[in-house]
Write a structure and sequence with these properties.
Strand content: over 45%
Largest sheet: 10 strands, mixed
Structural class: mainly beta
Shape: elongated
Order of helices and strands: EHEEEEEEEEEEEEEEEEEHEEEEEEEE
Distance between the termini: 55 Å
Number of domains: 2
Number of strands: 26
CATH topology of the largest domain: Jelly Rolls
Number of helices: 2
CATH architecture of the largest domain: Sandwich
Length: 366
């Protein structure tokens, strides 16, 4: 539903005059989107009581075009997910707005699910005990729950000074490719200027030890922070970091960092401590194609792998690492901004998406 905003201060009128002015406000904004020749998007906007329309592309500060027809055309140079804000202005200067989202696929430039590394459905000595291939029409709520908000009042910015407001609406199943999509957007909601999704398997699916494979293609851009991670089941009783945290994959975008992912452990040892390792691609970035992010976790160690290549290992046998000998649940999210990645700037293109083809859990066959 379009939301009524005020573009300028409104003068005070008598009740009768104000009612006349309210009746002349724009309303019923509808926008249709047509994509032609792969790269050109055509928007056609209509609204009642409207004298002009404006069209703002992406995170531009000013509209790219203002006209009275409601028709706008823009050509993109590369594949990706994009947004355009449409405003319909009435004679009073007040307006309603609608933000439309769409995906541009330009030939081989678009990353499809068949591009990149794929892991097997079987490993010697293991059995597949749980998986989600994201091939339903919607996200399976028997497996996943959603966290909402900005962490306030107890953990504003989710403990990392992040800028996004988490919503379920920013995630869905792309039924053309059968992949989970989590989208970070530049939009005002809940007192924040960005939205995204954070979803988890808490109280639904949790595991102790095994091999976990997650196949995903990552977003990019300054201040973008995708993560695939785990928390200990006892977080509700002992809190963080005493519950333990296993970061299977984190990437911080911008400044040429999109070619490197990080695997980390967090736990309590008379205070928060952490350690981890990183993997850098020999060429390209993690936004270019799908990769498989894995850990192999047993009673003695946790190993991190990308495309089945091990890049780090941590011994978890010390007495101060008991956190890592219990069941953990999964979390997926795309944060916007934070202490580690920094914050979006003029180079950051929105929306940004993390797409996940599958998550698979293997445990030792008995």
């Amino acid at each position: 539903m379009p939301v009524l905003f005020f573009a300028m201060a409104v003068l005070q009128f008598s009740c009768t005059e104000d009612a006349v002015k309210q009746n002349s406000d724009p309303r019923n904004l509808q926008v249709t989107v047509t994509i032609e020749d792969e790269a050109t998007v055509i928007l056609r906007a209509t609204a009642l009581n409207t004298v002009t329309y404006s069209f703002k592309v992406g995170n531009q500060a000013d509209p790219e075009e203002t006209n009275a027809t409601g028709v706008f055309e823009h050509t993109y140079l590369q594949s990706g997910s994009y947004q355009i804000e449409v405003r319909a202005y009435g004679a009073t200067g007040r307006y309603i707005r609608e933000v439309v989202y769409f995906t541009i696929r330009i030939g081989s430039d678009f990353v499809t699910v068949d591009m990149g590394y794929t892991s097997p459905l079987e490993y010697e000595g293991y059995k597949l005990v749980w998986h989600d291939e994201f091939d339903n029409s919607s996200i399976n709520t028997d497996y996943w729950v959603f966290e909402t908000g900005d962490g306030c009042p107890n953990l504003c910015g989710w403990g990392n000074a992040e800028w996004q407001y988490y919503r379920q609406e920013n995630s869905w199943i792309d039924q053309e490719e059968n992949v989970l999509t989590i989208e970070a957007r530049r939009e005002n909601f809940g007192g924040r200027q960005y939205t995204s999704t954070r979803m988890k398997t808490q109280d639904k699916k949790s595991f102790q030890y095994g091999r976990f494979d997650i196949r995903a293609v990552l977003p990019k851009g300054q201040g973008i922070w995708p993560a695939i991670w785990m928390l200990g089941n006892d977080i509700t009783t002992v809190g963080w970091p005493k519950c333990g945290e296993i970061d299977i994959m984190e990437m911080v975008g911008g400044s040429g960092r999109e070619n490197t992912t990080h695997g980390t452990l967090h736990w309590d040892n008379n205070g928060h401590v952490y350690t981890g390792g990183s993997y850098t691609l020999p060429s390209g970035t993690f936004a270019d194609e799908y990769h498989v992010f894995s850990i192999i976790w047993d009673e003695t160690s946790i190993k991190w792998l990308v495309n089945n290549l091990q890049f780090h290992e941590i011994d978890i046998t010390p007495a101060h690492m008991t956190e890592f000998h219990q069941e953990f649940f999964f979390l997926f999210n795309v944060a916007v901004g934070g202490i580690w990645p920094g914050y979006p700037d003029a180079t950051t293109v929105f929306p940004q998406q993390m797409k996940i083809d599958y998550i698979r859990v293997f445990q030792i066959a008995e």
